[in-house]
Fold:
Amino acid sequence: MDYGVYFVTQGDLAGSRSSVDVVRAAVAGGVDVVQLREKHASARERYDLGREVRAVTREAGVPLVVNDRVDLAAAIDADGVHLGDDDLPVAVARDRLGADALVGRSVSTVDGAREAAAAGADYLGVGAVYRTATKDTDPDQSEVGLDRVRAIRAAVDVPFVGIGGVTAESAAAVVAAGADGVAVVSEIAAADDPEAATRELHEAVADGRRRRADSGERR
Structure:
């Protein structure tokens, strides 16, 4: 599975467009994974939106995961869930969603990455790599930087995306440091042209992979 460009929805950044509109544009731009987040929406609003997003991603063959909510992931027949520190354990989420479910885990440290990998997470979200305005983070989870990305790459074999303040300009460096891809919110949700923004991110990820290959780093 390719985690190159991973889009996290947030409707309040999309202007006059809906998150469904943005997801359609991101799919047209070749997005690899979509995460339904929408933290400011009610559970019912997220359910209704999730059903629409699920229809778009299913038709395109793009994996859809739901942020935090295992029950919502099951209700909209998503491919899986992405968990944070305050959410259900990885093993419990997998038990509720099934053995084939995609279960991701947010981490900020090497120890956290090792624990999540040992617990059976399919992939990790590492960050916040840079300063971000789309999520409140504890000081020890903020601006962890490229050295942390390198350290986590050296510590685990689980795929991971760098998240937090990542832009098309910085994505290549994040991937060159060891991430398998980048997860973004505003870089696509708030873009004038989300399809073009997605394509630009793909180009940056490809550049980062070339740079890592040229340097002889693994993955």
Remarks:
- Residues 194-215 form the longest helix (22 residues).
